[in-house]
Amino acid sequence: MDKHMNLQQIIDRLNLTVLTDPRNFGEIQPEGGYTSDLLSCVMAGAKNNYLWITLQAHLNIVAIAALLDVAAIIITENAKPDPATIAKANEQGVILLSTSKQTYEIDGKLWEMGIHIQE
Amino acid sequence: MCPSRIRTEQEIHGRRGRPITDQDAHEINRVEELSYDLKIHEVMTKDLHTARPEMSLSDMLEMLRINRISGAPVMEDDKLVGVISIEDIVRAMQRNDLTETVGQYMTRELVTVASYDSIFKAMQTFAESHVGRLPVVNEENKLVGMITKGDITRGVLVALQRDYKEEEVRRYRASHLFEDIISDRTTLVLRYNIKANDFTHGGNASSHIKRALLRLGADPQIARRCGIAVYEAETNLIIHTTHGGILKLEVEPHRITMSTTDDGPGIPDVNQVLQPGYTTATERVREMGFGAGMGLVNIKRCVDSMDLESTVGKGTKLIMRIHVPTDNFNGRKDG
């Protein structure tokens, strides 16, 4: 599989909606992924430049993503962050993506696309 | 401010001066911002070569060639009457008309921009009018310069470079703090007041701390560990305290000490709260993804030493320490 899948390709293939300001997503190459809705678990498990897949859509996810420097947050099942959350994400350079699909499906597809986890 | 909103000029102006992150300079975002920040008079060409309507096109061509420009405003008695460009001259050449005058071939429908407008306005005008250069006028409608798309590109690049330098200088100054200030023991102390139940600002102190540490020249890995530990501690103050508390960061060349203090309610059994998965968070808090019972466990994992003291009815004090390798902060080598 394509080992160096970039964020633009991921957005296209999974048909994700970009909620934050446009960026050059082709330059971003996620190195893995982490899935959880528990913020402390994300703090412990998500690495730098990982994708974070979650159902959570409230303001606090932005701070976590900024602290961890994750590549992007994929918010599943159409959970919608409010405008303040999107504004804060833009301010902190955090990318928010949205999908109607379930977390399980997104995880599966990402793995198939070669987004595995770092050993 | 909905997802596909168009930002007002005011809104973007308000963001000026926020510190840029490592990636900002690559972002379309920042360029977008600059297109509102930068004014036309900052990027336009002020050193003007002007033409007169009665000049012959062959003289005009010579003037363009000598000055290595591709167009010029045409003035008649101090009044702007048109713009002549190399394209107009090419048109004349095709008809073997170079003996004709500038006035005959110049563009007369004058589209101008104001010097005090943003370059965004100029870009819009370029897109609408399909011309390659625009005369710039001042408040009194007097010609003060010319602007091309090339001027805009150059202006944006210079501004981006300036942004980078500013952040570099900030980093440089901060990272030399411990070298420049001589004492037997230098400590930089940062204090943050954290309010109970203030989920809206949750994580702000941690972000500021992480940035401060990076500016001070800390290793990104250490800044990240501090960020995580402080975030968990900050969150604990928000979720579990009666009146919030104080988050304190003390930076020394060889050590970073983070602490939180609050005045209640206090923890009945300190050993219990250190068990992974133990939580007293309410259902509401847990719905937001907090209260996994992993906060203190995470802190322990990120720091070199952690002390938790608590008295029910009096309050809790949490102290976290991270040792800094001697090459960090460009500090004293005696570690």
Short summary:
With 119 residues, chain A is α/β, with parallel strands linked by helices.
Overview of this structure, please?
The complex is a heterodimer of chains A (119) and B (335). Chain A contains 5 helices and 5 strands, in the order H-E-E-H-E-H-E-H-E-H. The mean pLDDT of chain A is 92. By secondary structure, chain A is α/β, with parallel strands linked by helices. The radius of gyration of chain A is 13 Å and the shape is globular. By secondary structure, chain B is α+β, with helices and mostly antiparallel strands. In chain B, strand 1 and strand 2 (79-85) form a beta hairpin. Chain B is elongated.
Secondary structure: elements and pairs:
The complex is a heterodimer of chains A (119) and B (335).
Chain A: H1 7-14, E1 17-18, E2 32-35, H2 39-45, E3 50-54, H3 60-68, E4 72-75, H4 83-92, E5 96-98, H5 103-112
Parallel strand pairs in A: 2-3, 3-4, 4-5
Antiparallel strand pairs in A: 1-5
Chain B: H1 9-14, H2 28-37, H3 40-43, H4 57-67, E1 71-76, E2 79-85, H5 86-94, H6 102-105, E3 113-114, H7 119-129, E4 133-137, E5 143-148, H8 149-175, H9 177-180, E6 188-194, H10 204-215, H11 220-240, E7 245-252, E8 255-262, H12 270-273, H13 283-287, H14 295-302, E9 305-311, E10 315-323
Parallel strand pairs in B: 3-4
Antiparallel strand pairs in B: 1-2, 4-5, 6-7, 7-8, 8-10, 9-10
Helix pairs in contact in B: 10-11, 11-14
Number of strands of chain B: 10
Order of helices and strands of chain B: HHHHEEHHEHEEHHEHHEEHHHEE
Count of folded domains of chain B:
2
Count the E strands of chain A. Answer: 5
Number of domains of chain A: 1
Strand order of the largest sheet of chain A: 1-5-4-3-2
Please identify the top-level CATH class of the largest domain in chain B: Alpha Beta
Strand residue percentage of chain B: 15-25%
Helix count of chain B? 14
Mean pLDDT over the residues of chain B: 85
Radius of gyration of chain B: 31 Å
In order across it, which strands form the biggest sheet of chain B?
6-7-8-10-9
Helix-strand category of chain A: alpha/beta
General shape of chain B: elongated
Q: Quote the distance from N terminus to C terminus of chain A.
A: 18 Å
Q: List SSEs of chain A in N-to-C order.
A: HEEHEHEHEH
Give the structural class of chain B.
Answer: alpha+beta
CATH architecture title of chain A: 3-Layer(aba) Sandwich
Beta-strand fraction estimate of chain A: 15-25%
